[in-house]
Automatic annotation (TrEMBL):
It comes from the Bacteria. Keywords: ATP-binding, Nucleotide-binding. The lineage of its organism: Bacteria, Bacillati, Bacillota, Bacilli, Bacillales. This is ATP-grasp domain-containing protein. InterPro entries: ATP-grasp (IPR011761), ATP-grasp_PylC-type (IPR003806). It holds the Pfam family ATP-grasp_3. It comes from Paenibacillus roseus. GO terms for molecular function: ATP binding; metal ion binding. Residues 151-350 form the ATP-grasp domain.
Amino acid sequence: MNGRMLNLEPFRKAREGRVLWHANINEDQHWNENPLFPSFAKPQHTSLIEQQEQQLLWIAEPEDVVWLLHAPDAQFLADIKRHKGELPHLCISRDAGEVAAFIAGAVSGLCTFMPFMLTPEFVVMAETHGWRLMNSDARKVKELNSKYTTRRLAEEHGFAVTNGRFCMNLEELDGAYQAFREAGFDQAVLKQAYGSSGKGLTIIENEHKFKQLSVYIRKRTASFELLLEAWHPIRQSLNAQLWIEPDAVHLLAVTEQRINAYGVYIGTNYAPHYEADVIGLYRTEMLRLGEVLRKLGYRGIAGIDSIVDHTGTLYPVIEINARFTQVTYLLPLIESLLLHYRHVESRYIRLESSDRLAFESLKEKLESVLRPDSDHQFTIYTFACSQEAEKCIYRIFVLFYGNEASRLQEMLEVFERFPALQEQSAPI
């Protein structure tokens, strides 16, 4: 049985007037008051993450306004226009006042403000400029984005949970880790309250890594709150998109996340196949969770991360993303593709170049190695670039769609090797 059925009508009906889209993607990165894990983030990485805002262009309607922090490549915009027929209004600025002035001058009527993640600052901003908010409880958003709240909520309401313990000092942390090892778990994951896409957590592969991490933490603090969870070998990583209204909960989509060995998101399977009993139980549990969130006062989009482990056991509530996700922004495009293609997957790669890459030239290069045909195609849906010293760094997201699984898998594998292929050939 598959999870490819999409139900976007409840979300569409909730729209009122034009939408002002904004992707404040890095909003939660400073919420951990005392970061306890080594961080190797670079400024250019932050810029590349911010440019994932380009995905807003795929969900926005022509009458909408998309508020961007970075100007997209002109050739890339032209390619999106070829796909969609018409682009939304674009405003590139870091100043909300400039955005308000742009809206007043370029469009008319009520604007519904849909940021990636609602914060108190954005509530004030909306009130200042007269933008409607569909969900104005920013405190509830922050509370539910906490990995700790997620764990406690799942336990309190009887959802199946992975082996895990909250630890307040190094002695408790060591005891929990040793207990997981004795129970047969080779790896564990240590989590702080906040952080997405692999941030705010670290994978503990072995005892040597655990000892290194313990030394690192000991140098910074003697007491803390950390969540240690046993790493259950994963068969499938599921994601549900919920739309929560004051009096109803809707399951918009079920997809399968592709996660690497470090717990970091690398892509999505938009047409996954599950055993009938698994998908049936999953839908039941997601609607039950949605009711819990609704009664707590949450409204709007929620992305739920879940897993099926190697034994076939479903753990439905691994993380709650009380915000939009990358998956959400692509759903209208996915909906149109699933009318014609059985398989749809996304991936991204990182490229480096001493010179600026022309979008059309890159696209042609990809066409030459991926060899798309009438039944198997690809679309570049994010083309992010950051300058670092004497080189340009690119983060490129591509959507693959086709009717033959083996052929699509071949395209995915070639794409993942593409950076290495370019190093062996002439520059693009």
